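User: Hi! I'm a student and our assignment asks us to look at how structure tokens line up with a sequence. Could you show me two examples?

Assistant: Happy to help. In each example below, the sequence comes first and the structure tokens follow. Example one:
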Amino acid sequence: MEPVRPISSALEASPPAAELGGRLKALRQERGWTLADAAEATGIARSSLSKIENGQMSPTYDLLLKLARGFAVDIADLFANAQVVTAPGRMAVSRAKTGQHHLNALYDHEILAGALARKKIQPFRTTIKPLANGASPNWSGHSGEEFLYVLSGRVIFYTEHYEPVTLDAGDSLYIDSSMRHAAASAGPGDAEVLWVTAA
């Protein structure tokens, strides 16, 4: 797997990165963990955890998964206090453009159904940017499965075992997430997708 690429200073300073950092620090302190303890639990370098806590680094989805697993929380818990509903039946309504955002160099993931913890799937509405000239895809690989449905624009989807595929609005794909994969907008502008992951 390729190393995490640095993100732009504009994204590094974004409020969502700072909010994630504060939440991560609070979770760590609730457990009485040092950065070294958190590094051992998550498998993420202590220096990277420090950067995330201080809002200097926006983690990839792979790192978010490691954080959630290491802290034994839902991904949504990394951004806000999600509720575990124990009464029969669970429901979360996500109003348009009100979800928590997680930004990195290529994606703006809007977390949907963030009010519920311990979900079996994690839905996102994601804005995908085009690759800069000469840039390589931001590869990812983790356990689980993923479903992607293109809402608008065109998406080029890369995998380690298949030729890249171009998807238009209305097209979808389903993959085994352990296969390295990446996506980028195939047009001059951004593309929007519904992206659902299941661990």
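Example two works the same way, sequence first and then tokens:
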Amino acid sequence: MEKEVILQYLPMYREALLLTLKIGWQGVFLAFIFGLLCALVRHMKIPVLRGVVTGYIELFRNTPLLVQLFFLYFALPKIGIRLSPEFCGSLGLGLLGGAYMAETFRSGLESVAPIQEESALSLGMTPLQAFRHVILPQAFTASVAGIVANVIFLLKETSVFSVISLMDLMFTAKDLIGMYAKTMECLTLLVVFYLIMLLPVSLLGSVLERRLRHAEFGT
């Protein structure tokens, strides 16, 4: 392994990391919003929307992100809808992640005992206030492990963005390998930069989960 080659490629990987992080976290934010909205619809048992949400979850949980990106980037222009590669990546990741987040939030909401909501309503809270101040905080605490796992999963899924010409980490590695055949150096840098991107999330999630567990049950 040539040290000079690694030092030469570092700036390109750094730029690719910044782009990957930007699109990845945009997708995570969208996934969080989509997932929470879908979980609310299912929790409140809204008749028509509940069926739509169920269909959305099943569709995106059971199709690969690669296929979804192909549809957004190559199929939608056929009907006049053109998305930039960056927006397409964020939206695709958000739609995929929203389906997984919805199930995570749903399980968290179901873990809250019904007596909690009944008690809040008996104290004069409106259903919205009860949900916001009583149910949601407990559901979030129960969902932290699943949320962190979903975030890590979504950030790893950014590795397929190269198919829509985004110069992410995977695209950069494949491009450099194709041009200079420095496979060992390129793949080593790829592993290192994915660790830089994902390891802090994993460690932060573990710390947050422990703190929330201690806050709920004590030390």
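Here is something you could point out in your write-up. The mean pLDDT is 88.
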